[in-house]
Amino acid sequence: MSDALEPTAAPTAAESPAGATVAAPAPLVIPVLELRHVNAAYGPFRALFDVSLTVGEGETVALLGRNGAGKTTVARVASGLVEPTAGEVMVDGNDFTKARAHRYAKAGVVHVPEGRAVFSDFTVEENLTLAFSRTHDRSGVRDALSRAFDLFPPIAQRRRQIAGTLSGGEQRMLAMARVLVETPRLLIADELSLGLAPIVTDDVYAVLARIREAGTSLLIVEQHMSHALALCDRAILLDHGAITWQGPSAEAADTLAATLFDTGGE
Amino acid sequence: MTASVLAAGVLEETIRAFFQGLPIGAGFALVAMSFVLTYKTSGVFNLAFGAQAFISAATYYELHVRRDWSIWLAVLVAVVLVAPVLGLLLERLIFRHVHAASAVAKLVISLGLLVALPELFKLIVDYNREQPFGAVGIIPDGTTVYRLFGRYPVTRDEIAAFVIVVAASLALAALFRYTRLGLRIRAVVQSPRMTELNGVNADWVSSGSWMLSSFFAGLAGVLLVPTTSSLGTVLEPTGFFPIVISALAAAALGRLVSLPAALLGGLALGVVTTQMRTHVPRDNVILAELQGPALPYVMLFAIIVFWPAIRRQVAGADPLLGVSPPPPALAATSRSRGMTIYTRVMALAFFTAVGIWTFGYANNFWISRITHSVIFSIIFLSIVVFTGLGGQIALCQVTFAAIGAFGAMQFAQRWDVSVIVGMLAGAAIAAAVGAVLSIPVMRLGGIWLAIATLAFALFFHDVLVKYDWVGGSLFHGRGVPRPEFFGVDFSSRENFLILCIAVLVLVGVLVILIRESSTGMALRALRGSETAAESIGVISWRSRVIVFSVSAGIAAIGGGLLAMEEKLVGYESNYDPQTGLFWLVIVVVLGARTVEGGIQAGVAFVIFPELVLDRWLGLHGAWRYVLFGFAAISFARHPEGLLEHGKRRSQAMMQRMFARRQPAMAAATTGPAVPTAADPEGEP
Amino acid sequence: MSLLVADGITKRFAGITALDDVHVAVEEGERVGLIGPNGAGKTTLFNCLLGLLRPDAGSVSFDGQDITGLPVYRRARLGIGRTFQRVELFSGSSVRDHLLFAHRIRSGTGALWKDLIGLGLPKSAEIERCDALLESLGLGGMGDEPIEALSLGQSRLVEVARALMTQPRVVLLDEPSSGLDRAETNALADTLARIQSEQGFGMLLVEHDVELVASFTERTYVLDFGKLITHGPTPDVMRDDQVRAAYLGDFVAGTS
User: Fold this and answer.
1) Residue A14: pLDDT band by 50, 70, 90 thresholds?
2) Which of A213, B3, B125, B130 is the most exposed place for a label (fewest CB within 10 A)?
3) Which one of B194, B199, B325 has the shortest CB-CB distance to A117?
4) ipTM over 0.85
């Protein structure tokens, strides 16, 4: 268990020429994120069974399924919050299976968790400063702050307010602002629309569409699927911790409705 | 006219006491802030701060007083170098690896360190404890007296202490408010995982906050060297207990999580201390005690019981709390039937051999050692009952043992009653005290219970023992006769040993009966899952109060027997609270879950320093504190105890050997195992 | 009069209304479902029924008695049993121990003096009773297994058995299907249905798995945004457009 805390050195493809000569030739396009036969568990509570998926460069993938199907766990594995009990996680072709969450973040894989994923005792500004100060100096942080407030004007007026007192929608915007000022390699967004008024959801998805144009890959976890399907190229359907279907978004709606409400031919 | 003069006098005294209280409170505040800092960032309630403060203070003393280093160099080494490095080592080598453990398991580890660190330091530095220690502050000519506003006397040391604490607090506030590290520490406090998602290595931040808090503890240690002399302490680790307790009280005011509350609480308690000394009349005995050593303990106990904030359960602010599985329960898996038979056979063989040797060949010295082992086994069964079965930590077993011993003594001396009756009366008193003591704090459970019982143990030690009706009078001495009843005289060594063995067997059977019956079932349910236990109707605090009371009675019986064996109540050598901490540590290290574990601990406690350390290895007896103290680290991973763990492994090995002949058996043991997060066989 | 009634329950957390005037009732011997999307307030309602949370407004009553202010263990002793979403078993105890503990606590023979003279040890009649229940739940012969050796599905059944040993009149099941695959879920549902028809206790099933609720329950309540959006016989509820919209969003509800 303690070994898991040690950051493992992740050899890049370029650094291991010896391996490259023996192993099968690497695929031409290395996906940003790849899960290979991942199992995951919370203590004795098993959540994922043999899940394999990829998110390619610039690709947008929707992860769909009912509550408790394991979508959130996939998102957590993909950002290093939960270490798989079996299988591998690759980021840009490097083995990140044992890496901790901060290394994923440094590699450009950012995760907006579901719910009120902000530091609720911090002010709005402190929340953002924490995120920006890793890569920016003092003046850089100031610039990044002003860009964040341009992106989400409603929270600009509340910059000195304690984040815990913001409305649900504002907290979501704050969580998004944290990651959207830079364009990350991959954005994992978990249940963005949860508890948001429809008009706010539209705003949030508009921002997502914008950063997709900027080249960021997206992995969108959604229970309310209409927005997600409109945005994404591809959909993956999870049920009871396993992938049951994947394919183009256009075909996802019918499959999903069938899975959720058909009672198995009764 | 006279009234106004009097009033002016009172006012002047009040102000004077206020200025005297601030520096004392400043020391409390420093330690209190250390507590809060580590508790918030790593969930460790680090009682070892007492040891860390001691190490810095002793380093300073060693360098400055004994080796004549300059003050500033000595302070630099003791506080700026030694203290943070010690904090870093503790975090890196120990606490980082147990971050998933429960708060109680972490508390046990810190107790082990509290026992081990000062002894290790003394062994390494060859610390000369005999040499009288003059209070030397970190300011030249610290005892120079100034008069504030021309009238209120304060020493230079006191001014320095206060100024340094205020400066340190301001610096800390600035660090939190304006620096990146401060922001990150505050972030980790709220949610380590959210912090990681921001690309920050939460472990590094944790290390930073441990260094910081250790620095504070070290600073407090050095600053308090001169001021503690007024609290009647010398430079021994126990000397820091009253300060640690006061600091705990200050930290408790802010529910252990608020730094400003810890600072203000510390200062306020310092002022309260001096105000009590000034204003409370001395003619009443109880009130007089409150001006002196009793105050910190009474304050802490009162705060735990009455301060409403402690009762308020704070919902976890961490939005990602659900990511980690809940910490493993302190209980280990129960033994298999094969294991039970295996151990019983081994134990029978062992005890037969020891019995034959003892009664046939052993000299007086060894008979006395073996009697001690039996008696300590009885005492340690009280820890088995409460910690092993109940899954909770209490630190006042030693006090209950003392009550049993004093009970036997008082009844024999005052009313000429049989010591056995006196011992049983002592046990009844201990059980009653246990019940009364635990009712208000048992609902809080966990670390609060541990702290409250520690406060009680220290209160007994520093206050109650001094009363004639408890600790006996100088005139009568503390002699205790060996018993004689039903015409049998137990005064010979052999006969008394037989009596002790009989009591051990009786208590052991009672413990097993409790474990296997309704009370034990409720406790096992609670230990496994408190939520689930309540969902089937278990009233958690009631079951625990009952068993705490039983455990107090058992400890008192053991304490009474110990006094009879030694023919006096050797309070200072056997029953001081520091010893009590070591009792708990040795029992949980060796095995708190079974009767057998308690007996092993009893034997190890008596025989180990004598036989293994001294005769075989030629080491100083103090190494036992170091060895068992550090071994307490294993508690997080092997709550069943190291010996129990070893026995299980050896039994599993034997089973595998047999399994070659019986493949079906192997299939049953390896079974449909559920994948778990932690590897049970791994070492930290 | 219904057995377990929650009337006008309102609960707020830091300004957010998690439950708004919710009314739920469970009769003796009835199987009732409670569904709703993530964050709809199901867990909050569940905790109000159990006594883990106290509602800001409204009342909970059991068999005509107001239990709004009672702690968890008092409700358990009145006859409200429960299971947990994340299995909460007593680590270090065998399967049979779980049932034995529950029986002992319910029958209230736990005096300390009896324990001390050996009257508190498990009796053969008690053990037989436990084993009979295990048998009927399909866990026959597993009484001595440590719970660490069980699969999640079996662990859920042990939770049910433990709850049943307290002789409950209503059992609240918190997402029994989570962590199970489809086949395991179906097996669990079959066993639950059989034991419930034998013993006749009421059941409230809080579930994500709409399929399980559809096949298992007679009546269903649907929560969304803390409000009860509909309730009635389960087949009717499953056909309700509002329910589909709550789960799928307007996009799908409009097209199907």
Assistant:
1) very low
2) B130
3) B194
4) yes
Q: Looking at residue C221, what is its pLDDT?
A: 93
- Is residue B140 over pLDDT 70? no
Is B217 a residue whose pLDDT tops 80?
Answer: yes
Centroid of chain to Cα A91: 13
Residue with tokens 């198995």: A264
Parallel, antiparallel or unpaired: strands B152-155 and C4-13:
unpaired
User: Are B63 and B78 a contacting pair, CB within 8 Å?
Assistant: yes
Amino acid present at B515: R
| AA identity, residue A246 | Q
What is the C-alpha to C-alpha distance for residues A195 and A127, in angstroms, rounded to an integer? 21
In our burial notation (b when 16+ CB lie closer than 10 A, e otherwise), range B214-239 reads bbbbbbbbbbbbbbbbebebebbbbb
pLDDT tens digits, one per residue of A162-194 = 887 777 778 888 888 888 777 788 999 888 777
Test mutation, C87, C251, C255, C256, chain A, max A CBs within 10 A: C251
Element (H, E) at C229: strand C227-233
Helices (H), chain A: 17-22, 71-78, 101-106, 124-132, 138-151, 153-156, 168-180, 198-213, 225-231, 249-261
- Using CB atoms, pick whichever of A39, A100, A133 lies closest to residue B180: A133
Boundaries of every domain in chain C:
4-79+167-255, 94-164
Give SS3 for A160.
coil
Using the predicted structure, report yes or no on whether residue C27 has a pLDDT greater than 60: yes
Report the alpha-carbon distance of residue B682 to residue B613 in Å, rounded. 28
- A-C interface: how many C-beta pairs under 8 angstroms? 89
pLDDT tens digits, A68-98: 778 888 999 999 988 898 999 999 989 999 8
**Whole-angstrom Cα distance, residue B602 to residue C214?**
61
Sign for the CA dihedral angle at B360, B361, B364, B369 comes to negative
Residue A263 has pLDDT above 60, yes or no: no
Q: For residues C73 and B531, what is the distance between their CA atoms, to the nearest angstrom?
A: 10
Contacts of B675 in chain A (CB under 8 A): 39, 41, 44, 46, 85
> What's the one-letter identity of residue C169?
R
User: Which is higher by pLDDT, C242 or B561?
Assistant: B561
Q: Does the domain spanning C4-79+167-255 belong to CATH 2.60.300.12? A: no
- Reply yes or no on whether the pLDDT at A3 is more than 60: no
CA-based torsion, B343, B348, B349, B353: positive or negative: positive
For residues B128 and A60, give the distance between their C-alpha atoms in angstroms, rounded to a whole number: 71
**C252 vs A: CB within 8 A:** yes
Parse chain A into domains and list their residue ranges: 2-116+182-262
Q: HEC string of B235-251?
A: CCHHHHHHHHHHHHHHH
CATH match for A2-116+182-262 among 1.25.40.10, 3.90.1170.50, 3.40.50.300, 3.30.360.10: 3.40.50.300
Statement: residue A22 has pLDDT above 60: no
Q: What is the pLDDT of residue B431?
A: 93
pLDDT at B661 > cutoff 60: no
pLDDT at B678 over 60: no
Instruction: Give A6's DSSP letter.
Output: S
Rounded to 5 degrees, φ, ψ at A8 are: -85, 140
Q: Is B451 helix (H, G, I), strand (E, B) or coil?
A: helix
Burial of B50 (0-12, 13-18, 19+ CB in 10 A): buried
The pLDDT confidence band at residue B3, using thresholds 50, 70 and 90, is low
Contact A226 C251 (CB under 8 A): yes
CATH number of B10-316: 1.10.3470
